[in-house]
Structures are given as structure tokens and as C-alpha cells.
Specification:
Elements (H helix, E strand, L loop, with lengths): L34 E2 L2 E3 L5 H5 L8 E3 L4 E4 L2 E15 L8 E5 L11 E4 L8 E4 L4 H4 L18 E10 L9 E6 L3 H13 L9 E10 L2 E10 L5 H14 L5 E2 L27
Parallel strand pairs: 1-13
Antiparallel strand pairs: 2-3, 3-4, 5-6, 5-9, 5-11, 7-8, 9-10, 11-12
């Protein structure tokens, strides 16, 4: 796991416990059991803003440490995994109804879900059918059949794992980008590919910009090239990439549909090979 790669901050550990710092695994767990914490871009409607004094809209929030990391964070991209998620409407507490980890096959094929999206005059049925393409749920107009301007019912989602050189004790983390945050993230992946070294040897400044969507202003992601990591960091990030590319890992993504509620650029599974190299 990451804690045998990254030197954790040992401030506050009594001297008599220093020889008992974590060196052994807890049972037979491995990286496939790891749920990687979120680096969330907080919005005005994010529950953390009202629950925590140190949480502010427009700042990045580490959801496991419950710490604000400010409005700019230096990150090294480790690996990207894309999926398609079919969420129940926000007023519906069922959460994720179906998921496609390969953007082709549903984990719940041939299922029907009765839902009532915002703006729908009456309950409707979403059908996953045999696969994503057949379901049509990634197409515009699919969330409210008969309304061609309604958003896709299911959304392409990128989970990007990052190492944070300024916060090694909080690394790795995952940003989850969907709906209105797809465009800047896809642009980031193209820009990563233009640089002369491997993605895990590149530094990027993850920033924030305020934009206006159908439901009002919201915060979105920006990315700026920020040089290259020091050798010690590059060795950590290379080892982290080699480790996580071989195992299954989960992001802590069940609690918030980041970017979904504010409108803006919305996309189905287009350019879906863009992240395959990571």
C-alpha cells in the first residue's frame, strides 16, 4: 500500500512507539482492498461547507483527512480509470443504479429503473438493456425521453489518481470528473500526452475557475503545467504507477456526484480511448 512508499508525517508520535510504526499489513489485505480518498472541489451546495469550519466553496477538500488544501494543489498524475455511471436522480436515495467499468457492459444489464428526474412530468423508466450502446442512456434526451435537450441519463466519468508532492501524507488521492468537468479534464489528458516524459513524471497545478451553468455559478477545474518532480518524488510516483496499474482499486465516489448538478458541458462516452494509455 501507499504507506510503505510514502514517508508519513510522524509528528506527535511518542518516542517509545517509533519502532512500532506501520510496517506490517493488517491481515491478508492488499492494494485491491484499498479505497482511495477523494480530492473534492467544493461547491456552495457541498455538505462539507456547512459541516466543517475549515471547508470553503472553491477549495479542494481531502475527504478522509477532513482538511482543506486550498484553491491550488500541485499534483503528479498516476493513473486514470474511466467508467460510465447511471445515477438515480438527486431526490432519489438509491445512488448508483448501474455502472460500466469498460464503457461497454453494464454491471446490471437488462434492468429497469423507475425514476423521476427533475423536470419530468411523471415517472419514467430507464432500461440498461444488454449493453451501454443499446441502452442509449449516454445520449442527449435519454434522461427525460421526449425532451431532446435533457441531459444523458448516464455519464462518462474519469477517476484520476494523483500524488501530491506538497502533501505526501495525504497521497494518493482521486479526483472524479464528470458532466461539466469533463472538458478541462480531457484537455489535460491531451496536454499530458504532448510532454516529453511519462505522465507520472509530470507536475501539474490543479486550480479552480468560477463558471456559470444552467443553475447558476459553480467552480470548475483548471490545469497548468508546473514542471517536473524532484528525483525522489519521481521514484515514488513511478513505483506507485507500477503498483496501481496492476490491481483493482476503488475511489471513494459514492457520496457526491461532482459537477453533475450545475449543467455546463455534458458528454457521453466520446473520445473514450483518450485515457487508455494511462
Amino acid at each position: 500500500m501507499a504507506n510503505d512508499i510514502v514517508n508519513r508525517n510522524d509528528a506527535g508520535i511518542p518516542d517509545y512507539l517509533r519502532n512500532m510504526q506501520q510496517k506490517e499489513r493488517l491481515g491478508n489485505l492488499d492494494d485491491s482492498d484499498r479505497i482511495v480518498p477523494r480530492l473534492q472541489l467544493l461547491q456552495a451546495i457541498s455538505p462539507e461547507v456547512t459541516e466543517y469550519d475549515n471547508a470553503k466553496a472553491g477549495n479542494f477538500w481531502h475527504n478522509l483527512a477532513a482538511e482543506s488544501l486550498g484553491s491550488k494543489v500541485l499534483g503528479v498524475p498516476i493513473i486514470v480509470r474511466k467508467s460510465i455511471l447511471l445515477w438515480a436522480p438527486r431526490s432519489d436515495d438509491r445512488g448508483i443504479l448501474a455502472r460500466s467499468m469498460d464503457c461497454v457492459h453494464w454491471d446490471n444489464p437488462n434492468m429497469e429503473f423507475t425514476v423521476k428526474p427533475k423536470g419530468a412530468p411523471h415517472p419514467i423508466t430507464w432500461k440498461t438493456m444488454a449493453n451501454v450502446r443499446e441502452s442509449g442512456l449516454t445520449e442527449f434526451g435519454s434522461s427525460i425521453p421526449g425532451d431532446p435537450n435533457s441531459n444523458p441519463a448516464a455519464s462518462l466519468t474519469y477517476n484520476t489518481m494523483w500524488f501530491l508532492p506538497d502533501f505526501p501524507e495525504y497521497s494518493p488521492v482521486v479526483t472524479i470528473n464528470t458532466r461539466s468537468s469533463l472538458k478541462p479534464t480531457q484537455q489535460l489528458y491531451n496536454r499530458i500526452d504532448l510532454r516529453p516524459v511519462a505522465h507520472y513524471a509530470q507536475c501539474w497545478e490543479i486550480g479552480v475557475v468560477q463558471e456559470k451553468g444552467a443553475e447558476g455559478p459553480y467552480f470548475n477545474y483548471t490545469y497548468r503545467a508546473a514542471g517536473y518532480p524532484e528525483q525522489a518524488v519521481a521514484e515514488i510516483t513511478q513505483a506507485m504507477y507500477n503498483r496501481y496499474k496492476q490491481v483493482e482499486w476503488m475511489a471513494n465516489d459514492e457520496s457526491e456526484r461532482e459537477g453533475e448538478s450545475r449543467g455546463g458541458t455534458t458528454s457521453g462516452p466520446v473520445n473514450e480511448e483518450m485515457a487508455s494509455k494511462f
